[in-house]
Fold these 2 entries.
Entry 1:
Amino acid sequence: MLNLKFLRDNLDEVERRLATRGGVVDLGDVRTLDESRRSLLSEAETLKAERNQVSALIGKTKDKSQVQGEIARMKDVSGRIKELDEELRQVEESLNGLLLTLPNLPDAKCPLGQSEEDNPEISTWGEPTKLGFEPQSHWDLGEKLDIIDFERATKIAGSRFALLKGAGARLERALINFMLDTHTQGDKYTEVLPPFMVNRASMTGTGQLPKFEDDLFHLDDPDFFLIPTAEVPVTNIYREEILDGAQLPICFVAYTPCFRKEAGAHGRDTRGLIRQHQFNKVELVKFARPEESDAELDQLLADAEGILQALKLPYRVVDLCTADIGFSAARTFDIEVWLPGQQLYREISSCSNFRDFQSRRASIRFRREAGSKPEFVHTLNGSGLAVGRTVVAILENYQQEDGSVVVPEVLRPYMGGMEKIG
RNA sequence: GGAGGAGUGGCCGAGCGGCCGAAGGCGGCGGUCUUGAAAACCGUUGAUGCGCAAGCGUCCGUGGGUUCGAAUCCUACCUCCUCCGCCA
């Protein structure tokens, strides 16, 4: 959520900066609602002040017959207050509803662009793998090795599900453990295992609601949502809390499955593990002081890159342009891993700084020192990494001409010493 | 699922329908004393909205209601605790 005061004073600038995300932005309604809110508020508060005064007087008066007139008048005043409060409630509901649909302001440093084509590549690591033979796709490899069964997953659940088997299931589990162990080394990140279902307030806090309900799996009774990323439950750990500034930054790492409807992706990535309704992810989440969040984003990105480097998987980093950053983000770096089967780089991690956008929605604040005023923290998160896509990358990059797959060295201890699948 | 009990400030804990944003304690902060620290003593210490400010408003789990006036009364919901049942 944007700062209403800032928005009020810089309406044109906000419109212009939001428009860099694409489309036209008209904040006229925000102005109108804000103005009527303030005028209703001041009228209601004046009456409340009067009522408080007169009621105190009535209270002090022993002989109530002397104040019958005041009591009658206050009855009217109270009626009027009730009307105004109701009007105010409606205006605030509209205003708040509107504010909740406005995306975050892109950072000044966020590159301008019209589409993902305009995302500048800022670094590369390793060389795209040269296999010396015709590479197979991970879905062919997986099926031939009998470690991924898409057909039966479809029978059990439906399309966009996978059944991992044998060394495939073991590889997924090995990756989760390897990632968690790596990130928690030296107490950099504290491991958490959060609920996989959350309520509406949590979804609103991180920005999935109210705009993106269609992308979420929902349970009617109780009114819960399956998490689309661990970002949601982990960021909401501190919703409506005031943190001690001395403890910042607070860094969490969480493994969770993630559930997404992929409603807008019909026909895209229908084969393979790339786009599933359910996938595993190890997520990094940080709560930082505002002045430190840029540096924390760099570190977060480096931590995510560290996993790919340890696995010796080639990748590049792109700086998402204004048209491509997510709703809640102010700045985002994507890590894209090389996939020989498809001969392209594919997103495997997305690392973002949300600044105070989520912390305003979720009311997550901190005190610099005892006695100072609460300020909003900056929240950040990034995949460290998407596990399913890491399996894809390993199968495709480590495949051999005979269709077997070499297990990356760092994973062997997690695979019971297995050096090769197949 | 059934039966009881409870939700007050960072924490514990008082609170008669008006003098309660809320006693008291702990903790925090500042000070006195001390070579320094502890102890003791004194003072101070919630959040938020509108406003340049003075100030005014709001917040005692959440939402409704009664009343001139609600932390205090009524009501629904939420959460927690105890007991019974069921259960990985």
Entry 2:
Amino acid sequence: MSVSIVLFTSDLRVHDHPPLRAALRASSEVVPLFVRDTGIASAGYAAPNREAFLADCLGDLDTALRACGGRLVVRSGDVADAVAGVAAETGADAVHMAGGVSAYAQRREERLRNVLEGQGRRLVVHDSVVTAVAPGAVTPASSDHFAVFTPYFRHWSEQRLRDVLAAPRAIRVPDGVATEGTPSRARVSGTSPGLAAGGERAGRKQLTAWLRRGVAGYEDGHDDLPGDATSRLSPHLHFGTLSPVELVHRARGAGGPGADAFVRQLAWRDFHHQVLAARPAAAAHDYRTRHDRWRSERAAARDIEAWREGRTGYPVIDAAMRQLSHEGWMHNRGRLLTASFLTKTLYVDWRVGARHFLDLLVDGDIANNQLNWQWMAGTGTDSRPNRVLNPVTQAKRYDPDGAYVRRWVPELAGLAGAAVHEPWKQPGPERAKYAYPDPIVELAEGLERFRRARGLD
DNA sequence: GCTTATTTACT
DNA sequence: GTAAATAAG
């Protein structure tokens, strides 16, 4: 008669869950445990949209566990203390959990290992739960991680992934383990009105629909802003309600150029995770400095505010920023454009933008968010420091009829076609009809400031 | 075998 | 411009 604990973190599912399977194999009784980590709030990482989505996920996980005779135990507090407490109460001899990559996750794992080993218990950390290919599983000859995507992707693609694990059929939880119960989404305030629903069942339904109907058009459609033809699976990947290993297997099974392009995006996710695992400081500091002297937040306060609120006077930027606040999610092309605009055109520190995204994005993820921001800011792994995206050119390319802008910027709904991307070109009397701001900065002016600051010519 | 130049490709 | 692969020492 032995007891194991499964500590759920960013893996809120029962399908394809190596820690859960390992615990069930090792022990006759298992405690599925989630700790509402008070440290996340004090680290400034908590956000209402993710709190609400998390509540859905925990409720659904509890339901799935109950369906096979178990339940989810929820506690609050410091993770190491809470887990040690449950371990002492139940006499568990091992704790199984997924490996994480952030500095926070690495610290958490270390503290947990110390406290458990002090009690004579084991911590077992499992790979390929949060990513398909584990960080460090492939490395170049001269470094502990890849800094260029293309060679990483070649190696990543050659990795043999483990088989997908079935959901458990039966779970016995020891009697009398106290739980706080799962939180309610309804009690989270300050969420985006159009926030998606969380939970493994919702994620699996979405995945099936995506593979059946969406993925085939992904290669052609992924950058089409109004078409909205991306998978929207990012929140489920962030909370682990879907398994990246299973996604890769099933997408490869679907086949075709759309599936290949989609799998490539999943590899980008793993790429950023392996960078952060090796360089956890990159969440807060330049991966490779360009010696920027960003405009101070004080000096740029009005520009930053306009950017956050979606009133920069560049319609596609404002549309994307409003989509973010309304849905807690933004189209990937919008993320690139708004990040380029903040860091290059306004020359504001990428950390300011990354912070705002983390405050709102339901899929807000330290590895992907921080490193993609750095990628766009030119301080990351990318080797092109002077890449600047022109919001007008890009808008005409990826929103040729202006439908995306009109959807999110109703003030401009009266402007037909691509004219909506340049409202300042309307003749004076026409323009007065639209309660929409003039551009807060000239593109050429911003570009010049940026190039001067970077010493580019 | 190991270090150092050259080539290649780059969301 | 730069990282990785390859060729050369």
